[in-house]
Every structure is written in C-alpha cells, then in structure tokens.
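Batch manifest, entry 17 of 40.
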Amino acid sequence: MNDRQLKIKKMLETTKEVHLQHLRQVFSDVSEMTLRRDLSYLENNGYAIRTHGGAISTNKVNIPDGEENEYSKRANENLLLKTAIATKAVSYIEKGRSIYLDAGSSVMCLARIIEGEGCTFITSAVNTALKLSNTTHSVMQLGGQVNKNTLSCSGPDAIEMLKHINIDLAIMSASGFSIDRGFTISNRYESQLKQAIIEKAKKVIVLMDCSKIDKDLTFTFAMIDDVDIWITNKSDKLSTIIEKYSEKIEIV
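Output type: structure tokens
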C-alpha cells in the first residue's frame, strides 16, 4: 500500500465515506483513473466498498461482540485462492437466469469479475449489491436486519421478500464445514435465510476453501447432500470427503 492509499484509508476510517470529487482536490497531482485504482485496491483488500461516486468504509458501523471476525480481515485472507474459486464459479452464470449471490468474501470476489448482461441477481449482501449496481444486470437487494460484520441483511423481512422470488441458481458461502455438522455459520438469522434460499433454488453451489473444513459453528444451514456443487481448493482435508462425494466437488 503506497502513501496515497494509506491516506485515503485513513480518511475512510475517519469519515467512513470518501468521494472522488473531494479526492481529486486533495490529490491534485494524480489522475482520476489513478484514484479509482486506489479505491479498487482498498476494496480488494477489504477496507472499502466502491460506490458510484467514491467509496464507503467496511467499518462504517460498529461491529457487535460475539459475531465472526471483521469483514475487512476475512476479505484479506487467502485472496488469491478466493479469486480462483470465484473464477471457477463464473462459468455457471448464464444470461437470463435468476441468480442468488450470498454474503461472504468469496462471493464478493465473484461479484467483482462478473461481466455480460441479462441476469437478475438477488443478494443479501450490501457490498455485493453496490458492486453489481455498476453493471447492466438487474439487481435486487433483500432487506432485513443488517449484520454489521458480514455486511448482509437477514431476518423475517428478508425471508418474506424471498417468498415472491424464483431462483435458478444460488451461489452460497459458509464459515465452516464438517461431515457430521455440514455447512455452518454463526448467525441464526443468516442460517435461516440460507436454508430458505437453498429450498427455493433449482441448483446450489457453495464457494468455500478447505481452511474451513472441520470447523463447526453454531448453526447448520445445509448438509453436503443439500448442495449440487462445492467449489474449493486441493487439500488433504478433502480426502475422506471426496471418497463419498466426488461428484459434488470441483477443485481449483
């Protein structure tokens, strides 16, 4: 991170939001394109969410105790691996389909590389909705209670809205997995929403790297039999799982 990017990061930490127009005044010695690249760098490393005219901080609101690790920390972990997993998932996105994108840093990597047009994307993730709003795709944001750590909405309002939506493909994330407990997460409302989405979707893909195998969190939202494809990386942790579920697992 260069000095200018550090200063922009500090501005985000202080004001929670920056605008390109203001950045052009502060850093008059560089082009707007350079500043846009700076904001993209901060987004890719989990410090910011790009908006039409600038960016907002991922820590715009305080994170309550008892949740998972901060989004910005998770987003910066295994970034190359998450991007590889996301790239594998792109091939499943077809024009004209209704596609749900879950909250999570791996799915956010997917949102960054989605191109084309003609899809309807539904998401619970605020940052994913903002990123896709800069494309020509149709975007729907589920409402509900905001998890300030995962930057996602869930709860009864989100599930009620979901009743009126058809989903061809759901691309999901998980915080942990084990053979006995399945795919798990720490937030009850998000677990209930994930269950409802999986029940509605014609096809379900999970993006999760092997570092989360044998990690059980509080709530199970799906067993491996409930999903069609799990995209992950090569690891010794997969050996016993592949023996039984080789047809479901795609390795990058």
